[in-house]
Amino acid sequence: MQERAGWTRRLTGRKGLLVLLVPVLTAAALALGDPGWPLALVLAAQAILLWWGNAGERTSRPAAPETQSLAAADRGVVQARLAATDSTQQTAALAIRLDESPRLTGLYGPAFLAVLDDALAERLGGALREHDAFCRLDGGGFGVALLPQRRLDIGHVLSVAQRIQHRLSQPFSHEGNTVWPSVSVGFCLSARAAALNGIDMLQAAERAAEKALQSGPAGLNSYSIVDFPAALAGDRIEALRHALDTGEIRAHFQPQIRTDNGHVSGLEALARWHHPQRGIIAPGDFLPQIEAAGLSQKLADRMLRDALDTLAALDREGLSVPTVSINLSADELRNPQLADEIIWALDRADLAPGRLTVEILETVVAGGQDDAAVHTIARLAGLGCGIDLDDFGTGHASIANIRRFAVGRIKIDRSFVTRLHEDPDQERMVAAILSMAQQLGLATLAEGVECAGEQIRLAQMGCDHLQGFAIARPMPAPDLPGWLRAHDAALARGEPWCEDPAAARAANAGDG
Hints:
By secondary structure, the protein is of the alpha/beta class. The chain folds into 3 domains: about 10-50; about 75-220, 2-Layer Sandwich (Alpha-Beta Plaits); about 235-505, TIM Barrel (Alpha-Beta Barrel). The chain has 22 helices and 17 strands.
């Protein structure tokens, strides 16, 4: 019965009509007995009917499914998504604003802008991943919450922002009018920095987007406590000042090792707050407040003093650590007295300038302004201090500025190091950085090394120095002698040294 029904459908459909009409026309041509025009008529009719039948089949065939596009959610959904991350994951908020919106409204009217806004929402939904979320913002534009990840750095967020800008900038036409829209993007990666001003991450991203609009079109701007300083209460500022004066905020030290022989090549000083009630507080919880309170220089003084005192104490114990490094921000480097203060501190600790390394962010070098920071770095390099370029690969430092700042070593950012022994793309990126450094005569240090596989592969690739939880956690100064002796003993026995990252992470409140 089903077979007969199917046959009936085929006969009554377009192809069924084709099957019935072709023989009828052929018979009519033969009946006329003329092999000329009737045959041509039959062939033409067959061609038309075949085309008609195929067209019907094409139109009736279901369309291939298109890639799913996210739909806009409520603002509350996006805010909840941003607030739901735990201590093991990071997210980011983005705010997207249409450039020159008032001008476009004046040219084409509000109705055109409303249609354009809908089109941009559809494009944005297609540019995001399944587990991201976005909403419309009051006053136009969109807010985005990115899928929480274990490591979400600024390089990844910039990549997402630039992808969004590319997708949304495609030409748009409506009722004979065509525009090439552009958007500016602000983003926030730190809930803590936003909370200092009593706002959430999405509100912080909106503030950053307003600043991006001012530098646009197609501007990009990150929310920073420096750009949007918080009004800290006086008692909070006093608590921070007290912590710096009494040594509650002090240096922990993370060892760095050579890949050719495993020996310790240096230590990096990292700030930790030993709070009398809350225990050890990680730097992300108090460094933005230090900046907002105007205490960055006081922190730099504390870290310099702790670093040099610790290195001198290790010398007295006969423990060989060639250098110690401290991090200095652009604001700290602009202190015209900084070089003199460092010279005095080195003299007080009876240490040669070559024992101190200054780490500067790539963003400082990328700017290349001829200001106090440039002169300070040049003077420190002239004294013999080492200059490390930190977080290399996340900024836009030019080779000319690397030379100009007398950089001696580049620190490969952890975002490139993570899982490079399993990810060919990561490995190729690191290989390119190592090759460039070799051609420029620069030493290299990979930071954020978290497993033996990364450690081994980096050594095989020719990276000079390693730092991270796979080597050692950041530790208080009193713990260093025991660790150094254990490390030397392991090397003497011919044993590889690789600390268990999980244990190191559990023992340490900060990151390494």
